[in-house]
Amino acid sequence: MQILKIEENDAHQRLDKFLKKLFVNATRALIYKFNRKGKIKVMQVWEDWFKKRDNEFKLWVWDSVKLFLSDKDISELTKQKTEDKKIMNSDQMFNKNDIVFEDGDLFVVNKASGTNVHPGDFKSTEVSLIQQVQDYLWEKLNSLTFKPSLIHRIDRDTSWILLIAKKKQILSQLVADFKSHKKIKKTYLAICFGKLPQSSGTITKKLLRIENAKNQNKVQISDEGQTAISHYKLIEEYEVQTDNGKQNVTVVEVEIETGRMHQIRVHLASLKCPIIWDKAYGNKSLNYYFEKKFSVKRQMLHAYKISFFHYGRKKQFDLTAKLKDDMEKFLNKIKS
């Protein structure tokens, strides 16, 4: 028998849904059976006794749930922390130097290029960023059914300032803001081949996503596509000597109003200023040359600023993630 205290991250959900998350190895039918036979009872904060409740009963903060089950049954049905797979390989552990900001509501990180943010992305079995973060925050987790969760996603090959929610309510609020593009402002730095047509401007070319693309790019500029708006600004220009003469390299700041797939990559390529090492929309011969000469091994795109409304603190937040070492080293090489 055990008594569980309901805290903020476990509240505001139906009893049966709470139990399904808690008893990860139980079928819904078994959970209904437990409830029907009085194996699960709830005492609300203003009450002095435990009662049998309907499956639809909504749990509130500081309610108590009493499990009339043996410790062995509970252990078999629940995914105890001590039984979760801990990350033991130091190369797979979260690097605390990537923390941009942390408080009781949010955990903000500077994601490295080449890292999956979610388990199973790209059909890979590698340890994902969210698994690393949950492992890193292991001792701070105090919820029975909720773990730190991704608020938004990003390409594997892009380095990025990434928001992770520690609280269920913060997750819901910020996910809604990202979907509606309200109160969210994202700014990127891209290192590109070529020169911009002007020092600043706005690209409004519509983008069409090609489903099941094989011998063509997944995203194309088309009047039949969805609205896509990107604002760009020149930061720096360089000339790099190659075997075929001088090559212009441009550092561009891009702010997007819409979040279409590959939006920045396609829009910059349309200005004849493709992102370096962009295999889909870039210059293949220059990519190959820069990979050999400068050890460039990923697309030179970094989401380095994000502005959002922090619901926990009830104010606007502006956070910045420094360039990753590979982009920094590349810029230093072409400057010298």
Explained architecture:
The structure is a single chain. With 336 residues, the chain is an alpha+beta fold. It folds into three domains: 78 residues, Structural Genomics Hypothetical 15.5 Kd Protein In mrcA-pckA Intergenic Region, Chain A; 97 residues, 2-Layer Sandwich (Pseudouridine synthase), CATH 3.30.2350; 138 residues, 2-Layer Sandwich (Pseudouridine synthase), CATH 3.30.2350. The chain contains eight helices and 16 strands. The strands form three sheets. Strands 5, 6, 7, 8, 9, 10, 13, 14, 15 and 16 form a ten-stranded mixed sheet that branches. A four-stranded antiparallel sheet has the order 1-4-2-3. The protein has a two-stranded antiparallel ribbon with strand order 11-12. The mean pLDDT is 90.
Summed up:
By secondary structure, the chain is of the alpha+beta class.
Q: Which SSEs are present, and which pair or pack?
A:
Layout: E1 2-5, H1 15-22, H2 28-36, E2 40-43, E3 51-52, E4 64-67, H3 71-77, E5 99-102, E6 106-111, H4 129-136, E7 149-150, E8 159-165, H5 168-180, E9 185-193, E10 200-203, E11 207-209, E12 219-221, E13 230-242, E14 245-256, H6 263-270, H7 284-294, E15 301-310, E16 315-320, H8 325-335
Parallel strand pairs: 8-15
Antiparallel strand pairs: 1-4, 2-3, 2-4, 5-6, 6-8, 7-8, 9-14, 9-15, 10-13, 11-12, 13-14, 15-16
